[in-house]
Amino acid sequence: MTTSFSGTRVLLVISGGIAAYKALDLIRRLRERGADVRCILTSGGAQFVTPLSVSALSGNKAHTDLFSLTDEAEMGHIRLARDCDLVIIAPASANLISRAAQGRADDLASTVLLATDKPLLFAPAMNPVMWQNTAVRDNVALLKKRGAHFVGPAAGDMACGETGEGRLAEVADIIAAAARFLAGDGPLKGRKALVTSGPTFEPIDPVRFIGNRSSGKQGHAIAHQLALAGADVTLVSGPVSEPDPPRVTTLHVETAAEMLAACQSALPADIAVCAAAVGDFRAEEIANQKIKKTSDTPMTLHLVHNPDILATLSAGNSRPCLVVGFAAETDGTLENAKKKLVAKGCDWILLNDVSGGKVFGAARNRITLLKKTADGEISAEDWPELDKKDIARDLAGLIGAHFAARP
Ligand code: CTP
Q1: Which of 282-286, 314-318, 328-332 bottoms out in mean pLDDT, i.e. has the lowest?
Q2: Ligand 1 atom closest to Cα of 327?
Q3: Do residues 198 and 278 touch, judged by C-beta distance below 8 A?
């Protein structure tokens, strides 16, 4: 049975070398398994395969130029670097390996390798003597030390007439190496997860709403990390500018009532993580027409309570085994977070200090994880300030360990 890469996104960097033609087959095999493939061709790569063949096979534009205004307008190089699950460099030439090791940013490929926070999988291909050269060995060792992964090269007859180690790894071997990052074989395989993220917008009239500053960064990152850990994830998102995470089913909603209905439609689930900043109130009546500004009379808006999604999920008949909430506190107190954990009936709560709006839209956050322990106590663990993606990865790791420990 072929491993499914459905819902994943691969960024394939094709550098110069006779083996570049095999990258075309790699694109086909990745797509056959359901991956969305975006490609970058270096100037060397474009000597061997054309951008036209690459875009025809990938179904996406072939990116070649760091300074292309059109490309930057469609998708900036930073987004290209980040909006994927894995970066494969195949074939990886001695030149590109060297530039990556030096941290150069002198073309689109090297810049993206520097700017990405995703795993790098190099599939080198070069003459056997070049591959054995100490300069190349040192560059490869340095990249490995920094966390890059390598597949191949294989030994055999080379196009240049020499024999030895330097052939691009077989496409099947590159696929097998990629599966480690794309197959979702992690500890949460077979588990269903539900994540809420972003703000809610509660309409007042056709043009106005009550909203909040939540960016959805944290919730979206959690949904993505749970999916990478193997879970089947439904993300219920309020209005955000974050892209839908790969390999996650995203349901878009606006109001708290819509968010609750979408969550209930995704049950049963094993895990629920409520990261959304749900509006606590909504207008009792929504005006059909834009409310006119009146000169003297003060305006009064009647608000009613919204449903509490986290509390509803925690108390429901189809309660997920593990329910995780957030506690956004402007005074940051542990006591408030503990009360929230109990009042909402969840199992874990991540306390974050939102005083001065400092968390909203930021890339980093400092949280305290509170857990209900088996003896009915509440444990608290302070985490250092971390990137929200790292918080998501660590939380997904803990959730994975929690389920691994269950009988
Ligand atoms: N939450 C929810 N539905 C609501 C309000 C909050 O699901 N209507 C969830 C949030 O997603 C979060 C947790 O409850 O996981 C706590 O949210 P927070 O904004 O910190 O607290 P509130 O319940 O809104 O209470 P308060 O505003 O009084 O602090």
Answers
A1: 328-332
A2: 20
A3: no
pLDDT per residue as tens digits for the range 64-92: 987 776 677 666 788 889 888 899 999 99
d(CA 218, CA 97): 33
What is the distance in angstroms between the CA of the first residue and the CA of the last residue of the chain? 29
- Best CA proximity match to 273, nearest among 240, 305, 233: 233
What is the pTM assigned to this prediction? 0.70
Omega cis (within 30) before 187: no
E-assigned strand segments in 246-375? 249-252, 271-274, 281-283, 303-305, 322-329, 348-353, 364-365, 367-372
Q: How far is the CA of 387 from the centre of ligand 1 (A)?
A: 22
In which residue are the tokens 């803990």 written? Answer: 398
Distance (Å, whole) CA 99 – CA 97: 6
Q: Which fold has domain 192-404?
A: Rossmann fold (3.40.50)
- Report which of 158, 163, 42 is spatially closest to residue 107, judged by C-alpha positions: 42
Question: Amino acid identity of 288?
Answer: N
Confidence band for 359, pLDDT divided at 50, 70 and 90: low
Judged against a pLDDT cut of 80, whether residue 406 lies above it is answered with no
Fold assignment, 9-182 = Rossmann fold (3.40.50)
Cβ burial of 201 (10 Å; 0-12, 13-18, 19+) is: buried
Segment 251-286, tens digit of pLDDT: 999 999 999 999 999 999 999 999 999 999 999 999
The distance between the two most distant Cα atoms of the chain, rounded to a whole number of Å, is 90
Cβ count within 10 A of residue 320: 23
Residues lining ligand 1, CB < 6 A? 196, 256, 274, 276-278, 280, 306, 308-310, 325-328, 340, 344
Would you list the domain boundaries of the chain? Answer: 9-182, 192-404
Ligand 1 mean position, distance from CA 346 (Å): 12
Asked whether 313 and 272 are in contact (CB, 8 A), the reply is: yes
| Residue whose CB lies within 8 A of the most ligand 1 atoms, among 200, 259, 280, 354, for a mutation test | 280
Q: Could you tell me the distance, in angstroms and rounded to a whole number, from the CA of residue 242 to the centre of ligand 1?
A: 21
